[in-house]
Amino acid sequence: MQRIDEVMDEVLKRNPAEPEFHQAVREVLETLAPSIEKHPKYQDYALLERLVEPERQIIFRVPWIDDEGKVQVNRGYRVEFNSALGPYKGGLRFHKSVNRNIIKFLGFEQIFKNALTNQGIGGGKGGSDFDPHGKSDNEVMRFCQSFMTELYRHIGDMTDVPAGDIGVGGREIGYLFGQYKRLTNRFEAGVLTGKGLGWGGSLVRTEATGYGTVLFAQSMMHTRSERLEGARVVISGSGNVATYAVEKAQQLGAVPVTISDSSGWVYDPEGIDVELLRQVKEVERGRVSDYANRKKGAVFNTKGNVWQVECDVALPCATQNELNEDDARTLLKNGCKVVSEGANMPCTPGAIELFQESHILYAPGKAANAGGVATSALEMRQNASRAKWSFDRAEHELTMIMEEIHDACLATAEEYGQPGNYVLGANIAGFERVADAMLDHGVI
Ligand code: NDP
Ligand code: 2IT
User: Fold this and answer.
1) What is the pLDDT of residues 37-64, one digit of tens each?
2) How many Å lie between the centroid of ligand 2 and the Cα of residue 10?
């Protein structure tokens, strides 16, 4: 569609050298044509041009002192992309690969994901090129305090509510919250999510992304009268999302047989031991090779990747572009029938094309991993009412939200004549909610 091509050309021109951002925008724009044709209002008021332009981008210096007394300098980011549906909401990523391009791609995805949750949250993302690997607790604390010393002036429970992502978990949220509280002299619980359970956190937030990704896979399988029970599941990553994808898959009777990190991957044919995984990763901050050393029958590999293991279900839960066209071909050859993305944009465009051509069940991250941010919104609800829900209540709400997202994607795909196309369904369902709000608000 010419209108969409023009917007994409402009994005390429105005955002040079930002390949992941281009990829994320292209993946959304190229599915929107049927919606825009049906609703000409979406061509008015430069709606699309405004959608691809962040409302605000903040970049700042983060100086901190390491354990040797040496001054280190990192760069901090917060991209406040779209607030049509609510305060900006999205995680913070601490990883050496972080730059403006990465934060913009994640922030753009977050707009549509958050719209799909129906929880009244806008889209944003932030982070830093700080690498937490090998840093002491004190170094992480000093970094977080310095990061928040700039970030605090841009966030707030009605403005922008960060949370975790790669490299940011409970420990980092604790240090960030402490510094925010100290700088503002306010116990403003709703300013961050993923908080500790003793000071405003929600039960199930830790588990929510991984649980949701598996629940989404299960909902997709039910549309074909297939069952997760007894399925062999291949999972990448070994962090927050992967760990709780393993746990939920096991609870539902499936057998997850792999985990990975940036140094290699583990094949554990009897099924991953989630308690040992949590001990190695969450308590000891170790590597998947440490897991393999302690688990009988588990093998650590540095060649190849998890996608070469025969499976029924694949759950990429590590990082962007971690599953390419060759991997997709291998998965299909081995009989994989379901792919549900726990990570953000883990499958390359070539891989997605293969999944769609072969008509397996494929769910994009903005739908399948929305359980994390949805449960962050549940945390905000509890903070606003000073309530504390039980695990069962929070998990029940998460399950309902995941079902609603699944059904919205399916119904939208159906409405636009492409039944079973979860990519089109997720993009258009999210887009229309954001676009309608933007039109209501006028040109801002
Ligand atoms: P964690 O930091 O807890 O874990 C990340 C895992 O992915 C680690 O095992 C890490 O290995 C691996 N990994 C990261 N980068 C790379 C890389 N470049 N190559 C190979 N492996 C890599 O992060 P999360 O589990 O929270 O996040 C995983 C994915 O899920 C990300 O895409 C994130 O954006 C997405 N996500 C997270 C949500 C959340 O609530 N946490 C919500 C929705 C999506 P290593 O330690 O070796 O780097
Ligand atoms: O990518 C994501 O959705 C997240 N990292 C979670 C964001 C959040 O605000 O909970």
Assistant:
1) 999 999 999 999 999 999 999 999 999 9
2) 28
